[in-house]
Amino acid sequence: MHRRNRRITRVAVIGTAATAALAGMLAGPLAGTALADGTTTADVTWTVANTDATGDQDNAEVSATRNGYTAVVWEDDRDTTAPEDTLHTEVYLRLYKDGTSLYEKQLSTGGSGNWRHVQPDVALHDDGTAVVIWAEDPDGNGYYNIAVRAVNTAGTVTGSAQANADSTGQQLNAHVAADPDTAGFAVAFEDVQTGTEPTVRLSGFASISSKTYEVQVNTAGGTHHRPDVAQDAAGNAIVVWDEDGDGNGAFNVGRKVFTPSGGVKVAQTIANVATAGDQDHPSVAANFNGDYVVAWETDQNGTAQVGARSFSAANVAGPEVILPGADPQAGIDDQRRAVVAWAQGADVYAQGLNVDGTSTGRLPQLRVHTTIAGKQDEPALGVNAWGQIVIAYTDDHDGNTFDQVYLGTGLVNSTW
User: Fold this and answer.
1) pLDDT tens digits, residue range 52-97?
2) CA–CA separation, 21 vs 38, rounded Å?
3) Which CATH number is 353's domain given?
4) Which of 299, 290, 297, 348 is nearest to 326 (CA)?
5) 295 inside domain
6) Phi/psi of residue 405, each to 5°?
7) What's the total number of domains in the chain?
8) Which domain holds residue 398?
9) Is residue 4 part of a domain?
10) Is there a contact between 366 and 58 (Cβ–Cβ < 8 Å)?
11) DSSP states of 285-308 as a string?
């Protein structure tokens, strides 16, 4: 299931049922041919999410379900000014079912002056309904709110909302997670008010038209940034974020779990074991039962690396695992098998992990893309209930500094 935005400014799933999906993946088309086992770079099928390559497309997120739906969102800036200029950037959504694109849709609607729509995220319900959020500044005044849209499998927007009740200040770095089998979802975002330190807030919805709560996630004091959120089938929301509660300038990964009504299910603590240096930029993913995995950036050993740790639905923690790279993304299936993707140099990598931190039987560490030239970064990761993996990343293989969003399917988090 889910998972982060890189700046201010989840591709097709194989099959509709686990048996058919895995059988199709493991059976060669002809007797005697080599079998694709879903654990090598050669097993990945890549396509480009954006059908219009004009300008710059990047900062993608993906989401995948057990029923064969996969969604990808991205920032789409179709002017030909400098790629880092996000002026007049729009948000696009594309939905796939069993490898077939159902629609591609622009969800944002421009604005006036120096307007921007940035930092999108998407979460899917099992019926293929997408919940998309982004930071919007339609009047170009430099202040953002968190827009929310629900979109059905025909590409029709069925409802709109705003995650933050208070529109003063800045609301940024938002993420969304959806209850797989109801219309419920949760949005976590960073709230910055004038003269105060940033806080993290969480809004829960029973549906796009029914907001049930909004709460401050972090305890009072210090500085709190860049949240991510995951949700299980009971509607519990797991929130992680950059936490500096004592204001000493060193961050840990805050962790807290909320009930469907916004009450505290698991009190605030930290996800990381080692606390030397900074632990920040976390990603979290949960499965149907409420088991979850957290990945984050760490410099505890003096170099930029990735930390990861699994937690059961009963809040029992596994060991901390250290991987290379930065900008991690987390995914998990219904058997508690985790996947972490990350950027390393000019490439994107992924690896599977067991609950105990080992990798035996899981996706081996590999560079996931086949195009080596140029730069590939900003990974996005989706893992469905069966352990099938979808990857997206920002691609600039021709070195012109204008990016496109590449989507990959075919990997599985198992070597059997």
Assistant:
1) 999 999 999 999 999 999 999 999 999 877 878 899 999 999 999 9
2) 12
3) 2.120.10.30
4) 297
5) yes
6) -100, 115
7) 1
8) 18-412
9) no
10) no
11) EE-TTS-EEEEEEE-TTSS-EEEE
- Give CA separation, 281 vs 94, 114, 343, in Å: 26, 28, 13
Q: pLDDT of 249-272, one tens digit each?
A: 999 999 999 999 999 999 999 999
State the residue for tokens 């976590």.
188
Residue with tokens 């990959």: 408
Burial (CB count within 10 angstroms: exposed 0-12, middle 13-18, buried 19+), residue 233: middle
48-57, 79-88, 188-197, 373-382: segment of lowest average pLDDT: 79-88
CA distance 360 to 415: 9
**Considering the domain boundaries, does residue 311 fall inside one?**
yes
pLDDT at residue 5, as a whole number: 46
CA 32, 33, 35, 41 dihedral sign is positive
Give Cβ neighbours of residue 219 (< 8 Å, ≥ 6 apart).
245, 268
Tokens of 162: 């705003």
Largest Cα–Cα distance in the chain? 69
Which pLDDT score, from 0 to 100, does residue 36 have? 62
Contact indicator for 17, 384 with CB cutoff of 8 Å: no
Give residue for tokens 């194989």: 14
Residue 211 is assigned to a structural domain of this protein: yes
